[in-house]
Design a protein that fits this description.
homodimer; alpha/beta; TIM Barrel; five-stranded parallel sheet; four-stranded parallel sheet; about 15% strand; globular
């Protein structure tokens, strides 16, 4: 993986760059749609490529490990082959879902034992196994196995947790560096900064992670319930420590406003289920604010979903039609809303990049954050 | 509406023709995907047009009347505008769903009172109102309000029922002929032959319907549980009476084999929920037979869904991936399977047409009906 910085905003820490992987280039800042179980819910890979122009998507190790399982993924030739997607993929380490989805889980130095949320079967994820699994899934960018602390989290727990996360990281790196990719293209491992909302822990973790010298770095454990201001404070502290010349990935963030604010702090990569999950609940993100399409007020609004968008679905389908589909619980509602929201998120980061290149980012960002929160 | 016959098979009663509507031409034989509530479930209108090349789709009057309702449809400028579909649409009269979906319904000479399956509200459909509703929905081809008898149905009930259906037809025609389209394009009304599985009643009904002199005619009350041989016997009797130079529409039929056999008897138009509904349950129709993609045997079959198909989804997604999506209850499974099945149904009628034109239909049909029933 390579990362080249093309421009830096003069009024903020925002940067524009290009990540190069064996599956193609990704211009940053970038948003990565979440394809949990090998599918970005409700849309297909042609739509992702042609309608949304997604440059990279996410897969969730926990879900893919449980279903379809490593045997199928390996025999398919990896996740790209299995799902028919030839652009970059990033996988998380599985840790986050183990903590959030699995009812029974136990964290020990060795790793985490948990029971599948599907069938209750018992499993053990260790840092080494998380690397092996991600080698088999075959994503271009894979993530270290860490503990994502909840919010709130007491200081002592968070302090102990980053120490374990750092020990786990060394084990991840050792395993990663002594194994090879399985499908003929390169993989790279991103470590993850933790430390909850404690500045000194974030500093300590960021310094540790920076010293590992990997090709890119991530910030985890944010957007887990803390106030946005705390998130921004942590991102700022961490971005100032993580290497300037390497991409920075803020995991699981967030709203369009969160994304713009974090771009201004020097983040390059984002993922979040918000545009896809909220789409399925009828919430649309637009350039003018947020629409709850299920509201009665849209029932007779025959204007296009977003007239000035270059997404076909935004032009040919009306708000009234989308409202009807949602109201009738028709699957097409989720599809159209998902296309819309992902298209908007990718428009947002693409426009942020253009504004960084042209030196207008900061003013544009400040204008947008006052608009994007509007409820239409 | 115009209908031009282009060719007739020499070994069967199959015909190839062209229906011309204000929304474009339809080459027959044709299969019409069912878009119940203004959406062919799980796929969008661009996919219907570009991937499937559907020439005409169906809307269900009962569903559209209840949701989004006539006020919204009229203010949208009709169903075409509302859903963003500029090719022909056919609507049923609402009768069938009143009988099948509504728990409380009462059939009288005036019409049918029923309660909505959605909110229990009470409604009355009369022949006149069914015309008014379909004027408002604005389909190119609209259907007479009839009684679709169940199977089995005793002779006396069926005999009385066709008499009422015929009286209702006169009322439909009077209303239709004294009203005008609302959206600037022509509509045409098809009457429906009933008579259950009784040959003499079918003859009587077909003669009555033929004498009405409408631009096209339909056969209803079949594929409601009777053996296929009884269906074919009724279709044959009726097709021999219905005018040769007008299109014949067999409502709600059916399996790929049913379609081929009925084409051989002189049917030009078909609709059925089977390709879409069964897709959502993981049943795929292919040139080589039927696949239940949920079966374990497909879990590691990495071959394309149907390699020789010209549908992109058939080529880029494997059986193993589709099986994974179905197994994981991912919406994309329904989308891909729906695209596949509709593409197959439209391949089937398109190929039937080519074979009619080239004089090879009968032999091809006989070969196909031995293959299409295979369970793969």
């Amino acid at each position: 993986m390579k990362f080249n910085l093309a421009a830096k905003d003069i009024h903020s820490k925002a940067r524009a760059g290009t990540i190069t992987t064996d599956h193609g280039e990704i211009q940053t800042p970038i948003f990565m749609p979440v394809g949990t179980a090998g599918t970005v819910k409700s849309i297909n890979q042609q739509q992702l490529k042609n309608d949304i122009d997604a440059k990279i998507i996410l897969g969730n190790t926990y879900h893919l490990y449980l279903r379809p399982g490593l045997d199928i993924l390996e025999r398919a030739g990896g996740l790209h082959q299995f799902i028919g997607w030839d652009r970059p993929i990033l996988t998380d380490s599985g840790g986050y879902q183990v903590y959030s989805l699995s009812k029974v889980r136990k964290i020990k130095e060795e790793g985490v034992t948990f029971r599948s949320h599907i069938d209750g079967s018992k499993h053990l994820f260790t840092p080494e196994y998380a690397m092996d699994i991600q080698r088999t899934i075959g994503a271009d960018i894979i993530m270290a196995f860490d503990e994502c602390t909840p919010y709130p989290c007491d200081y002592k727990y968070a302090a102990n947790s980053i120490n374990m996360t750092h020990r786990w990281l060394k084990r991840c790196c050792t395993r990663f560096d002594t194994t090879t990719p399985k499908y003929g293209f390169d993989q790279t491992l991103f470590p993850i900064v933790q430390g909850s909302v404690y500045k000194d822990l974030r500093v300590k973790s960021a310094e540790f992670i920076a010293a590992m010298g990997r090709e890119g770095n991530a910030i985890g454990g944010l957007s887990v319930g803390e106030p946005a201001e705390e998130m921004y404070a942590m991102t700022e502290v961490v971005c100032d420590i993580l290497p300037y010349e390497k991409p920075r990935y803020l995991m699981g963030v967030g709203t369009p406003i969160n994304i713009l604010e974090n771009i201004a702090l020097g983040v390059d990569m984002f993922d979040c289920v918000m545009p896809t999950r909220n789409a399925r609940n009828g919430m649309l993100f637009t350039k003018n604010g947020v629409i709850n399409i299920s509201n009665k007020k849209w029932a007779d609004d025959f204007s296009p979903i977003e007239a000035e968008s270059d997404l076909v679905a935004d032009q040919v389908y009306s708000k009234a039609y989308l409202r009807h589909l949602m109201h009738s619980k028709e699957m097409l509602g989720a599809q159209i809303a998902t296309l819309h929201n992902l298209h908007f998120y990718l428009w947002l980061v693409k426009t942020a990049r253009e504004k960084i290149m042209s030196g207008e980012f900061y003013a544009w960002k400040n204008k947008m954050v006052t608009i994007l929160g509007n409820k239409l």
